[in-house]
Specification:
The protein is an alpha+beta fold. Helices cover 25% and strands 21% of the residues. The protein is rod-shaped and about 110 Å long.
Length: 135
């Protein structure tokens, strides 16, 4: 079974792409020398994401505890709010099983019936003649 580690870095004082240029080689080298099977970088308009796959959970946790990894994570553009590190793949990567389609909302199931206006028509009563007949 595969064990992924995701590192999301958001833009801050400088861009996360610059952080990737400065720290990316050290992170990928540390991952490879500590048993990473594959890795992938994602560039977004808000920052970068690094996803690394390890064969075991122990190797993943050992990589996370390395001093080079800690130093790279301490150097992110916004250390207070610009870093997420969590096990598993990132939210935008999708899942191994496709999602089931959601049912249509009930409001979209059919049109609301239009009320029918009833029209009442009748004959008007005869009015008295305005001119009387002179005889």
């Amino acid at each position: 079974m595969d064990h992924w580690l995701t590192i999301e870095v958001f833009d801050g004082e400088h861009s996360a792409s610059q952080w990737r240029l400065a720290q990316g080689d050290a992170l990928t080298e540390a991952a490879l020398t500590n048993g990473a099977e594959q890795w992938v970088w994602h560039e977004h308009r808000w920052g970068v994401v690094l996803e690394i796959e390890f064969a075991t959970e122990e190797r993943r946790d050992a990589f996370r505890a390395l001093p080079v990894v800690t130093a790279a994570l301490d150097a992110v553009p916004d250390p207070a709010r610009g870093l997420l590190v969590y096990p598993g793949r990132g939210g935008g990567s999708g899942s191994r099983m496709p999602r089931k389609p959601r049912p249509l909302p009930m409001a979209g199931a059919g049109a609301v019936p239009v009320p029918v206006e009833s029209v009442r028509m009748g004959l008007a009563e005869a009015l008295p003649p305005m001119f009387s007949e002179v005889g």
